[in-house]
Amino acid sequence: RTLRIGLIPGDGIGKEVIPAGRRILEALPASLKLKFDFVDLKAGFESFEQTGSALPDATVDVLRNECQGALFGAVSSPTHAVKGYSSPIVALRKRLDLYANVRPVKTVLNAAKPIDMVIVRENTEDLYVKQETTRDTPEGKVAEAIKRISEKASFRIAAMAGDIALRRQKIRESSPSIHSKPLVTITHKSNVLSQTDGLFRTVSKQALSDPKYASVAIEEQIVDSMVYKLFRQPEDYDVIVAPNLYGDILSDGAAALVGSLGLVPSANVGEGFAIGEPCHGSAPDIQGKNIANPIATLRSAALMLEFLEEPEAAAKIYAAVDANLEEGKLLSPDLGGKATTDEVVEDILRRL
Ligand code: NAI
Ligand code: MG
User: Fold this and answer.
1) 278, exposed or middle or buried, with CB in 10 Å at 0-12, 13-18, 19+?
2) How high is the pLDDT of residue 175?
3) Are 81 and 135 in contact (CB under 8 A)?
4) Which of 17, 84, 85, 118 is least enclosed, having the fewest CB within 10 Å?
């Protein structure tokens, strides 16, 4: 099988870590019978300055018409508003209907407090439909925002969480893990928002009551106590599913549990299409120094492969990365090491 993969480095260290992602995909063993056909694509602030567009139509067209997946680096966003500029990743999620944002947060097994969870965030609705209004009243301005929750979006995100739980269970059959049983935790605030979050809760439970998820334990957790437990007992969690806003906050919070942004991958997933994207930004403070940690991107490449139905290839990348971290000899500066980006990549390629 040959997968056509778009490479979108973007800005800053995106240009250093996306080539690393390409190298790891090219280095996968031939026995997997998996080939890649890469296409370089533009997006980001530099693209905006050069072409007038942060997300050129050509990029979207090639992704939509030719590619099965993509790797997206990072983009710089100016701190002041620039006319005509808006974030390309938000637009891409919308234009390609990438309805799920998936963020695994994992330590190595020999960590003092090992954790291994995935946060599955609904990516298309909730307060992020950005339908806000402001009106003047005798008491001053009042601003309001629409929080939209639909049956369709809630159902498909919960089903995805269930599918991920099953897949993780399967992977555990052949590799050691801190979890013995798959668990999906549905997060909401339906005690206060009984209609919107209430609908998310009801439909999620319904989706996960499908007999194919019979082996998966289902629990629910109100979002504020979820934050408390996530920080006190992160090892308890396997798969967490949440509406857009809570998922955004939980996933950034969870990333803090593993030490460096340079370790945390994500994927934006739609029907038959996935974009792997490291969680970090363009890191202008370290760009051009060959010290960016490539691991978030390598894991994002693996995550993309999981959603393109290539779990074996993904598992090989995860194992090579874990072996590098467990040995702890060739680590980048964000992890307290002295290795360059290239040295980390080469160590991981050797293990692959
Ligand atoms: P950032 O994630 O770029 O950097 C935060 C800190 O983490 C910096 O000290 C940086 O050196 C370090 N860091 C990040 N990734 C690293 C890696 N792979 N290896 C080693 N150290 C790493 O966030 P910041 O500084 O808030 O934003 C910088 C630019 O990135 C801004 O223009 C911002 O808008 C953009 N950004 C883009 C994102 C995206 O494309 N998804 C996400 C977050 C920020
Ligand atoms: Mg965020």
Assistant:
1) buried
2) 77
3) no
4) 84
* Alpha-carbon gap, residue 293 to 10, rounded angstroms: 16
Q: What's the CA gap between 186 and 243, in Å, rounded?
A: 9
Helix, strand, coil abundance in the chain, percent, nearest 5: 45, 20, 35
Task: Rounding to the nearest 10 degrees, give the CA dihedral for residues 43, 45, 47, 48.
Answer: 110
Was domain 113-258 assigned CATH 3.40.718.10?
A: yes
| 1-97+271-352 shares its CATH topology with 113-258 | yes
> Mean pLDDT of all residues in the chain?
95
**Angle of the 57-66 helix axis to the 88-95 helix axis, nearest 10:** 40
5 Cα to the center of ligand 1, angstroms: 24
Ligand 1: distance of its center to the CA of 279 in Å?
8
What ipTM does this complex have?
0.97
Domain ranges in the chain are 1-97+271-352, 113-258
Tell me, in angstroms, the distance from the centre of ligand 2 to residue 280's CA.
Answer: 10
Of the bound ligands, which one is closest to the alpha carbon of residue 254?
A: 2
What would be the CATH architecture of the domain defined by 1-97+271-352? 3-Layer(aba) Sandwich (3.40)
Give the closest residue to 313 by CA, choosing from 171, 114, 159: 171
pLDDT band, very low/low/confident/very high, at 260 (cuts 50, 70, 90): confident
| Beta carbons within 8 Å of 149's beta carbon, 6+ residues apart | 125, 126, 196, 197, 199, 200, 243
Q: How many CB atoms lie within 10 A of CB 147?
A: 18
Q: Report whether pLDDT(204) > 90.
A: yes
C-beta of residue 250 within 8 angstroms of C-beta of residue 119: yes
Question: Of the ligands numbered here, which is closest to the C-alpha atom of 252?
Answer: 2
Taking the C-alpha atoms of residue 73 and residue 77, their distance in angstroms, rounded to an integer, is: 13
